[in-house]
Design a protein that fits this description.
InterPro entries: SAM-dependent_MTases_sf (IPR029063). This is DOT1 domain-containing protein. It is a single chain. It contains 9 helices and 9 strands. The chain is an alpha/beta fold. The chain folds into 2 domains: about 1-50, no CATH class; about 105-260, 3-Layer(aba) Sandwich (Rossmann fold), CATH 3.40.50. The strands form 2 sheets. Strands 5-4-3-6-7-9-8 form a 7-stranded mixed sheet. Strands 1-2 form a two-stranded antiparallel ribbon.
Length: about 270
C-alpha cells in the first residue's frame, strides 16, 4: 500500500473519531451525560467488534467502486462528510446519525430485488436522500417516479446537480426530483409508495417519521411499503419498526427490512 493511501486512511480515521467525539459532546450538552455515555459505549463496542474489522475491509473496496460510479456518470456521490459540514446545525446532526455516506450499489439492488414488489405501480421516496445515490440507482427500475427529501442544504444542492446530469443506458425511470425539507414536516405523496431509508435517522426521529407516514395512509388509504437498509446490520434499528403497531413486517435479513403500513381500523360506534 502506498504512503498516500496509508495517510488517507489515517486522516479518515481521525475525522471519524473527531466526529464521534463531537457527537458525544453534543449529546452530553443537549440530552445529558447518560445519553452521551450510551453513545460512547456503542461507539467503542463497534470499534472493538470483529464485525467492524470485516466492515472496514469491505468499506475500502466499496469506496473504490463508488468513485468509479461517479467517474462513469459524472456525478458526486462518493465523498463522505459530517452533517455539520453540509449545513445541519450541531444539535440536529445526531438525529441524522452524524455523517453522510452513499449507499453501496450491490446492497441497494439486493434489497430492492428482495422486496418482490410490482414496482411499476409505486413511487420511490428516498428519506434522507443525501447526494441522491439511491435515487440514481433506483432509476434503473420502472418506478412511476422517484422523489427524495433531504434536510441538509449542502447535500440537497449536490443531489440536484447529480440528478440534472445523470444519464444511464439502463435507466427506466426518468422522473426524478429531490426537495429540501424536514422529514418530520414533509407530506408524503398521495399515491402508492415505496419509502426508502438508508439508515438516515436516530431511533426517535425514525419512529416519528413512521408515525407521520402511517397517519398519511390513514387519511388517504393506499399501498405504502417501507424498505430500511443498513450496510452493517438491520439489528441496529429493527426494534423501531417492530414496535410500530401500524406496520406489518414482511421480510427481514441482515441488510434489509421490508414492512407494509397497515393503518388501524377505526370503528364507527354511532348507534
Amino acid at each position: 500500500m502506498s504512503m498516500q493511501r496509508i495517510s488517507e486512511r489515517f486522516s479518515h480515521a481521525a475525522r471519524q473519531f473527531h466526529q464521534e467525539m463531537s457527537g458525544v459532546a453534543e449529546l452530553a450538552r443537549t440530552k445529558g451525560p447518560r445519553s452521551a455515555a450510551e453513545r460512547l459505549a456503542e461507539a467503542m463496542a463497534w470499534r472493538l467488534s470483529p464485525a467492524r474489522r470485516s466492515f472496514v475491509r469491505r468499506l475500502e473496496h466499496e469506496r473504490a467502486l463508488a468513485r468509479e460510479f461517479d467517474e462513469r456518470f459524472g456525478v458526486d456521490t462518493s465523498s463522505e462528510s459530517s452533517l455539520t459540514e453540509v449545513g445541519v446545525p450541531a444539535d440536529k446532526a445526531h438525529d441524522g446519525n452524524g455523517i453522510y455516506r452513499g449507499i453501496w450499489a450491490d446492497i441497494f439492488h439486493e434489497a430492492l430485488r428482495g422486496t418482490g414488489l410490482s414496482l411499476e405501480d409505486l413511487t420511490f421516496v428516498d428519506y434522507g436522500a443525501g447526494k441522491g445515490k439511491a435515487m440514481l440507482l433506483a432509476s434503473a427500475y420502472p418506478f412511476r417516479r422517484i422523489v427524495g427529501v433531504e434536510f441538509a442544504p449542502g447535500l440537497c444542492e449536490v443531489a440536484q446537480r447529480n440528478l440534472a446530469v445523470f444519464r444511464s443506458p439502463t435507466q427506466r425511470c426518468f422522473s426524478l426530483d429531490v426537495v429540501a425539507g424536514d422529514a418530520l414536516e414533509w407530506e408524503p405523496p398521495a399515491e402508492p409508495l415505496l419509502c426508502f431509508f438508508f439508515n438516515p435517522f436516530s431511533d426517535e426521529v425514525m419512529a416519528r417519521v413512521i408515525a407521520r407516514i402511517s397517519e398519511s395512509c390513514q387519511r388517504i388509504p393506499r399501498d405504502i411499503y417501507l424498505l430500511y437498509v443498513n450496510i452493517r446490520n438491520t439489528d441496529e434499528q429493527a426494534r423501531v419498526f417492530e414496535r410500530s403497531s401500524e406496520l406489518t413486517l414482511l421480510r427481514r435479513d441482515r441488510h434489509a427490512l421490508l414492512a407494509k403500513v397497515t393503518p388501524r381500523v377505526v370503528h364507527d360506534r354511532r348507534p
